[in-house]
Amino acid sequence: MKELKCPKCGNVFKVDEADYAFIVSQVRNAEFDREVERRLAEVSSRYKAEQALASRQAEQGFKSELDKKDKELSGKDAEIMRMRGENEVELARLRGEKDAEIARLKSLLENVEAKREADISLAIVEKDKTIARLNSEIEQGDSRMKLALMEERGKMQQSIEAKNAEIARLKADAELEKTKARVHEAELLKQHESELRAKQELVDYYKDMKTRLSTKMVGETLEIHCSTLFNQMLRPVMPNAYFEKDNDASDGTKGDFIFRDTEDGVEYISIMFEMKNETETNSAKHKNEEFFKKLDEDRRKKKCEFAVLVSLLEPDSELYNGGIVDVSYRYEKMYVIRPQFFLPLISLLVQMSKKSLEYKKQLIQAQSREVDVTNFENKLADFKTKFSRHYGLASSKFKSAIDNIDATIKKLQKVREDLVSSENNLRLANQDADDLTIRKLTYKNPTMKRKFDEARDGGKQ
C-alpha cells in the first residue's frame, strides 16, 4: 500500500500498487505531453530561424540554397505533421485513461471524505459532551471560587483594617521617634561639639608634649602605641601569642618587643621588633639603616626568625613611605615599616609561617626521632660506662671482701685453736674442780679443819 496526499484538502489516503502504478504512468504521460510540446516549440522556433536565415540569403542572392532549405523544411513539416498526428492519437488515448483514473480517484476521495465527515461528526459529538462536562465543572468551580473569594475578601478586609490600624500606630510611633531623634540629634551635636573641643585640646596638649619629649620618650610612646594596637586588634584572635617587651639585657643589648606564637606546641613564628622615632626639633636626624646591624644582632641573640624596624625616621623618604620595605638583601629576614603597617605585616608573616608549619612539625618529628635514637645510644653508652665502673668497684670490693674473709678465716682458725686449747684447760680445770674436796682443802690445815668440824656440828644441832 502506498500513501498519497490530496493537494486540495491535504488528507492522506492509501492506494494499492496497481493504482499507484497507474497514477505514476499518468504523471509520466503528462510529462511526455509536456516534452512533446517542448520539442514542437523547439522545432517551430528552429523553423522560424531558418526562414529568417533563408530570407536573408534570398536578399543576398542565394536562391538555390533557399530552395534546398524549402525542400528540407517541407520534409520537416511533413514529419512534424506526422508526429503531431501520432501525438494527438496518443494524447487522446492518455486523456481517456486519465479521465477514467480521475473518475476512480474522485470516487475514492468521495469515500474518504464521507468517512472523514463521519469521523468529524463523531469527534464533534464527543467534543460537545466534553465541553458540556467541562462547563459543568467550570460552573461548580466558579461557585466554589466565588465562595472562596468572598471568604478571602472578608479576611483581606479584616487584614487591611488591622494593617491600617498598625500603620496609624506606626505613624504615631514614627512621629514620636522623629521627635526623639531630633532631640537626640541636638544632644549629639552638643556632645560632638564638646568632644571636638576636648579632642582639640587633647591634640594641642599632645603637640605641646611632643615638642617637650626627649627622643627616648618619643620612642617609648611609639612602643605603647604598637602594644596597644596589638592588644586591641590581634590579641582576641591570637590569645596564646607572646608579645612582650624584651627586658633581657644580659648580652649587653636588647630589642624593644618580641613576638612569638605556637600551634600544637610548635613555635612557627618569632619576630624581634625595634621602634624608632625622633622629635621634629631634634637636630640629630637619624637614618633607618643606622639600626639594622643592632637589630639583626638582637634577633640572632634572642633566636628570632624575623626582624622588623617600626620607624618614623626619614619622614620624607618615598621608599619607606611606600609600604613594607624588605631589606633582607642586607640582613636576613628584616623589614622596615611605618606604624600603620604594624598589624598587616604581623598578619602577613603569620600566614606565611603557618604554611611552613607542617614542614616544621615534620622536621621536629624527624629530629625527635633522631634525638630519641641519639638519647638511646647515649643512655646505652652511659649505662655501659656506669655498669663498667660499678662492676669495677664491685669487683674490687668483692676481692677485698674475699681477702677480708680469708684473713677472718685465718683469725677464726687461730681463735679455734685458742678455743680448743682453752677447752683443754677448762677440762683440766673441771677435773681439778671435781677432785677438790674439803678433806683435801683441810689437809694439813688444822684451823680450817676445826672450823669445818664446828660448822658441821652446829648444823646437826
Write up what this structure looks like.
The protein has 461 residues and is α/β, with parallel strands linked by helices. The protein is 74% helix and 9% strand. The chain contains 9 helices and 8 strands. It has helices spanning 17-60, 63-212, 215-233, 292-301, 318-321, 342-355, 357-435, 438-442, 446-460; strands at 2-5, 12-15, 242-245, 257-263, 266-276, 306-311, 325-326, 334-337. The strands form 2 sheets. A 6-stranded mixed β-sheet has the order 3-4-5-6-8-7, with helices on both faces. A hairpin with a 6-residue loop joins strand 1 and strand 2. Helix 1 (17-60) crosses helix 2 (63-212). It is elongated. Mean pLDDT is 76; it is low at 209-219.
Low-confidence segments, given as residue ranges, are: 209-219
Secondary structure: helix percent = over 70%
Anisotropy-based shape: elongated
Mean of residue pLDDT values: 76
How many strand elements? 8
Biggest sheet statistics = 6 strands, mixed
Which series of helices and strands comes N to C?
EEHHHEEEHEHEEHHHH
Task: Going across the biggest sheet, name each strand in turn.
Answer: 3-4-5-6-8-7
Distance between the termini: 184 Å
**How large is the radius of gyration?**
70 Å
Give me the secondary-structure topology.
Layout: E1 2-5, E2 12-15, H1 17-60, H2 63-212, H3 215-233, E3 242-245, E4 257-263, E5 266-276, H4 292-301, E6 306-311, H5 318-321, E7 325-326, E8 334-337, H6 342-355, H7 357-435, H8 438-442, H9 446-460
Parallel strand pairs: 5-6, 6-8
Antiparallel strand pairs: 1-2, 3-4, 4-5, 7-8
Helix pairs in contact: 1-2
Sum this structure up briefly.
Helix content is 74%, strand content 9%. The chain is an alpha/beta fold.
